[in-house]
Amino acid sequence: MLPSAHLGSLSLAALAIAIVVSCVSEMNVGVLAIALAWVVGVVVGGVKVEALMAGFPVSLFLTLAGVTMLFAQAQNNGTLERIAHRSVKLCRGNAGWIPVMFFLLAAGLATIGPGNISTAALMAPMAMRVAGRAGIPAFLMAIMVGNGANAGSLSPFAPTGIIVNNLMAKIGMPGAEWLTYRNNLLAHAAVAFGGYFLLGGWKLFRRSFDAGGGERQEPFEARHWITTAVIAALVIGAVVFKVNVGMAAFTGAVLLAALGCANHKDAFRQMPWSVIVMVCGVTILISLLEKTSGMDLFSGLLAKLSTPATATGVVAFVTGVVSIYSSTSGVVLPAFLPTVPGLVERLGGGDPLAIASAMNVGSHLVDVSPLSTIGALCLAAIPPGEDARSLFNKLLAWGFAMSAAGALACWLLF
């Protein structure tokens, strides 16, 4: 078996390889992380394979699978789309309120469970189509619906929120779920509305539009009311009665399938298995770093870049830049959040929760970049008549600008 220091260095090198590959390749980095963990830990380092497999996050896997299955059913049976269509009607023909409504709707939907990517996949086509019909610049609508989806991403019921809260509990910060959610929500609301009004959104309040557009509005049927009731019961049960979100979501999914309200097989196929494998695979590699001195080395590298006074800004910038090219929930946060205790220790001070919040916010603010899934979904839904290349360039510039803006905001606030 290799000396601990050498094994730690190899483990850190394996993590670095996984992060780089996630930025430049379409390979599922979770599968790569498992392979690297086995080669470095078992084949080279002599770690028992049972000890390596013990790093698989069973609780996280079950929670993610349950929540994503339930909301895949709600999306497939049309419940979420009907809620969205009716929400647009509340704008009462004023074009300026449409992006605001989509921000609020995306944030609300992401908060109750689907998460940011599923919400963006649902909302972006509708939002961009309405933007084209109402004469709203595609860029303004993209930053509103994209930031709205990200604003709800760290809810305790959303997949990314589940991942983050699980990671923070493991490093000694349990019970910060709603504070983490609030910080992220306020940050995205500030940049979205700031960008919307600074870039000309205020002019849209002088315009009117046809909310119906000649489209027939599908009615709510029994299956949609039952689905809505199940989701409401999940939220109430988790908030008020502290039930396990994953187990309750599985129960709700079974209930919808048994009552014929949703197609169980279609929902199972549409679950984000790629993301789930990515998160669980990287977590196994991170567990190897924790068993060796690799995490200490990683914390030391971050400590060299910052001081107790600048740590929040530095980590927000670093995670933001990496997140432009890589998966925030699957790679960036699972890799960086476990470094917080070691980073605080090496710096000789600092607030662990503030540094963790800076990582969470900084990595999410850049996710409207077209290189990220949410920005790409907005770009793919661009309405006729809009210049796709121009929108790509604007969203890319926005993403890079947010890495700097997020760093400054986190340094000032946290």
DSSP helix fraction:
over 70%
The tally of helices reads 21
Strand content: under 5%
Poorly predicted segments: none
Multimeric organization: single chain
What structural class do the secondary elements suggest?
mainly alpha
The number of distinct β-strands equals: 0
Average per-residue pLDDT, rounded, comes to: 85
Query: How would a crystallographer describe the biggest sheet?
Result: none
Give me some keywords for this one.
414 residues; mainly alpha; globular
Describe the protein.
The mean pLDDT is 85. This protein has one domain. It starts with a helix and ends with a helix. Helix 4 (58-76) runs antiparallel to helix 9 (159-170). The chain contains 21 helices and no strands. The longest helix is centred in the last third of the chain and has 26 residues, at 388-413. With 414 residues, the protein is mainly α. 54% of the residues are buried.
SSE layout and pairing:
Layout: H1 4-24, H2 29-44, H3 49-53, H4 58-76, H5 79-88, H6 97-112, H7 115-134, H8 138-151, H9 159-170, H10 177-198, H11 222-240, H12 245-258, H13 264-270, H14 273-291, H15 294-304, H16 311-325, H17 328-336, H18 340-347, H19 352-365, H20 373-380, H21 388-413
Short description:
The protein has helices at 4-24, 29-44, 49-53, 58-76, 79-88, 97-112, 115-134, 138-151, 159-170, 177-198, 222-240, 245-258, 264-270, 273-291, 294-304, 311-325, 328-336, 340-347, 352-365, 373-380, 388-413. The chain has 414 residues and is mainly α.
